[in-house]
Task: structure prediction
Amino acid sequence: TRKTITLMYDIHHFFTPILNQFSEFDAHSWYLYPIATLAAAKELRDNSELPKNIENLNASFDRLQKISSDFLTINLHGRKYGRKFILALQERLDNLSILDYNNQMRHEILCEIKLTTADFITHRQFAKKQMIKNAQEFYKNEFTQVPSTLIYTDTECLHIENCSQALIQNYLRHIEKTA
Result:
């Protein structure tokens, strides 16, 4: 009989909220780093079929930064909260524009995942600094496209660019079957 070996990986996944969709997470250690770029804001604006002007581009970029910052703030309470937030947000914005994200929607999601606004405000400044560090780490690893992933094993680090979370999970399942 063949014995199945379960390998554990540390996965550092750089993504754009809303553009890079997530499914449920597997058992590996997923560290999520939101990246907000003007190109992503433009794509979100265009996907929402908003008028192609600078005001909507700026508003889309502002919301993308707000979502990224909110995610990082929530993530400080534990990665499972961050993952729950991003999945709930995806579901809510499915048929809406990025401009529909506001404090009320955030509050509803916080209630759903059982965090209070007071918990949330405590870590706000740290999250803003973390966004800058995330971008620096992204460029330091010479990534040019989002999503991008670093997969750490005991012996190596694998760089993967422009590959969704679902594809990476499938890849890891395949590796585990052949290990």
Observations:
- The first strand starts at residue 10 and ends at 15.
